């Protein structure tokens, strides 16, 4: 009887200590997410299990080419006919940074900034486009200048992604964190999966 009480007490102690350690990590540092949908094919597939780094952007600014999880802004929810009171998370790639102008001409993306005042067409080897499938995105033409704390994000599956081309800029406050580790599928385990900086 005494051994049973001692065992239960130790077990309870371990559970409490584990919660004290795990819960703050889950709340403020890293959280698991499961990819749902095809907007990031072929970089991420439906069902991929990710750990999202929620702390790095408190110390450094997001970079072009990083893959992030974001809270869908109201304009995105309205487009999907989802109540704006609902919280929905998207996974997208950062394309445009604060202060830059992003020009979309069909499948071509051009960035205007201090380094490229005449514009630079982005080289994006990660992009997945099925030219055989008709798409509303093929004829999109727009030019957007980003203010402070505004980002332009896009999915890698360019003809099948609800992103800044449809619902506008992404406020920095909506960024949850960056993709840090892919845990599933097991043959694709790795850190910073999908990040690309060679523009």
Number of extended strands = 12
CATH C-level name = Mainly Beta
General form = globular
Q: How helix-rich are the residues, as a percent range?
A: 10-25%
Low-pLDDT sequence parts: 15-29
Write the layout of secondary structure elements.
Layout: H1 2-28, E1 30-34, E2 49-53, E3 67-71, H2 74-79, E4 89-96, E5 101-105, E6 108-112, E7 120-121, E8 141-145, E9 150-154, H3 164-167, E10 170-171, E11 175-184, E12 190-191
Protein model, in words:
- It is a single chain.
- This protein is of the alpha+beta class and 199 residues long.
- The chain is 19% helix and 30% strand.
- It has 3 helices and 12 strands; from the N terminus they run αβββαββββββαβββ.
- A hairpin with a 2-residue loop joins strand 5 and strand 6 (108-112).
- The termini are far apart.
Offer a concise description of the structure.
The chain is of the alpha+beta class and 199 residues long.
Relevant terms:
199 residues, alpha+beta, Umud Fragment, subunit A, eight-stranded antiparallel beta sheet, four-stranded antiparallel beta sheet, 3 helices, globular
């Amino acid at each position: 009887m005494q051994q049973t009480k001692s065992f239960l007490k130790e077990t309870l102690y371990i559970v409490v200590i584990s919660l004290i350690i795990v819960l703050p990590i889950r709340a403020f540092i890293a959280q698991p997410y499961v990819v749902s949908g095809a907007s990031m094919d072929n970089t991420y597939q439906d069902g991929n299990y990710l750990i999202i780094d929620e702390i790095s952007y408190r110390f450094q600014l997001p970079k072009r080419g990083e893959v992030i999880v974001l809270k869908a802004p109201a304009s995105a929810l309205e487009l999907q006919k989802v109540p704006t009171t609902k919280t929905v998370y998207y996974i997208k790639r950062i394309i445009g940074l604060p202060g830059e102008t992003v020009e979309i001409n069909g499948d071509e993306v051009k960035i205007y900034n201090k380094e490229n005042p005449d514009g630079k067409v982005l080289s994006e080897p990660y992009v997945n486009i099925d030219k055989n499938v008709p798409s509303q995105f093929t004829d999109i033409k727009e030019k957007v200048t980003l203010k402070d704390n505004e980002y332009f994000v896009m999915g890698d599956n360019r003809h099948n992604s609800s992103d800044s081309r449809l619902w506008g800029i992404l406020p920095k406050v909506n960024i949850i964190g960056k993709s840090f580790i892919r845990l599933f599928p097991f043959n694709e385990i790795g850190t910073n999966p999908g990040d690309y900086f060679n523009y």
